[in-house]
């Protein structure tokens, strides 16, 4: 029987809930049929798509062994407790699994690459290695203010990979360069007027000005095969994008209306590879 993680408090659980909802919102944006919107209430059946997204995240995308791992994917009953019972404190292994799900690594990490860092109370928790080196990133890393740079204005933002015209898989590697920035935001648009614009998870910029990560292009199934997608990168997005991202939204009606630096669109074609 697993022990309750007593170092986790109600504020941590509140942040964890928000992080899980944000991550699930991306699954919903990619495949509305498989991952529909649902009410986070006491009806355990509602949470089946969320549980399925946990399994896809770890066993399909990250290719973690289903048996030999350090995960504890929450059951439907656990998910109900997590989102409806303010007194519920899950086990440490469940907390770590939920944190890893909420913080989508770029690129996905193997189980053996998970590292331990000390928290303020001296106990130790597992965080994905992406956290290491991002000074000041707190909770689940969803504090927007961390991504604002206080020095010179950003410049020289370019997408170096993929090139325009490339046939790409759904899980696409993107890379580029920028000066005077610590975070890059990538937005993807299917290229049709009535289609939404999808904001991806933030990508950290390295000390040498390079950045690279993974983004999702199109639906999980083959409906997006052959579809052209426009990709742009931005630095220091503000306005409506910022406000709605803080609320857990990933779909928008246009490109960001305010940003300190942006690239021109590059166009890629979605292939049949996931």
Task: Kindly list the characteristics that best describe this protein.
2 domains; 23% strand; transmembrane; 23% helix; alpha+beta; globular; 274 residues; Immunoglobulin-like
Model description:
With 274 residues, the protein is α+β, with helices and mostly antiparallel strands. The protein has two domains: 10-142, no CATH class; 146-270, Immunoglobulins (Immunoglobulin-like, Sandwich). It has five helices and 13 strands. α1 crosses α4. The radius of gyration is 19 Å and the shape is globular. The chain crosses the membrane at residues 127-145. Keywords: Membrane, Transmembrane, Transmembrane helix.
Distance between the termini: 37 Å
Gyration radius, to the nearest Å? 19 Å
Envelope shape:
globular
Number of helices: 5
Give the helix/strand class: alpha+beta
Quickly count the domains.
2
Low-confidence stretches: 1-7, 105-150
SSE string, helices as H and strands as E: HHHHEEEEEEEEEEHEEE
User: What's the helical proportion of residues?
Assistant: 10-25%
* Main sheet record: 8 strands, mixed
The mean pLDDT is 78
What is the number of E strands? Answer: 13
How much beta, percentage-wise? 15-25%
Summarize this entry quickly.
This protein is an alpha+beta fold and 274 residues long. It has helices at 10-30, 48-61, 76-84, 92-102, 240-246; strands at 115-118, 124-127, 155-161, 167-168, 171-179, 183-189, 197-199, 203-204, 210-216, 228-235, 251-252, 261-262, 266-270.
């Amino acid at each position: 029987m697993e022990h309750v993680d007593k170092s986790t408090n109600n504020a941590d659980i509140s942040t964890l809930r928000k992080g899980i909802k944000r991550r699930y919102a991306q699954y919903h944006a990619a495949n509305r049929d498989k991952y529909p919107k649902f009410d986070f209430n006491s009806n355990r059946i509602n949470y089946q798509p969320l549980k399925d997204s946990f399994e896809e995240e770890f066993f399909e995308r990250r290719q973690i062994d289903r048996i030999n791992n350090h995960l504890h994917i929450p059951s439907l009953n656990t998910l109900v407790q997590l989102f409806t019972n303010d007194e519920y404190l899950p086990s440490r292994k469940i907390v770590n699994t939920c944190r890893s799900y909420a913080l989508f690594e770029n690129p996905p990490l193997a189980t053996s690459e998970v590292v331990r860092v000390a928290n303020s109370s001296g106990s130790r928790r597992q965080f994905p290695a992406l956290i290491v080196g991002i000074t000041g990133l707190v909770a689940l890393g969803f504090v927007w203010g961390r991504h604002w740079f206080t020095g010179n204005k950003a410049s020289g933002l370019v997408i170096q990979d993929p090139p325009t015209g490339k046939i790409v898989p759904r899980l696409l590697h993107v890379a580029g360069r920028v000066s005077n920035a610590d975070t890059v935001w990538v937005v993807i648009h299917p290229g049709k007027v009535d289609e939404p614009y999808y904001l991806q998870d933030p990508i950290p910029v390295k000390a040498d000005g390079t950045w690279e990560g993974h983004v999702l292009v199109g639906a999980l199934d083959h409906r997006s095969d052959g579809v052209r997608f426009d990709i742009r990168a931005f630095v220091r997005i503000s306005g409506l994008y910022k406000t709605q991202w803080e609320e857990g939204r990933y779909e928008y009606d246009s490109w960001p209306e305010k940003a300190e630096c942006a690239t021109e669109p590059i166009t890629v074609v979605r292939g049949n590879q996931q």
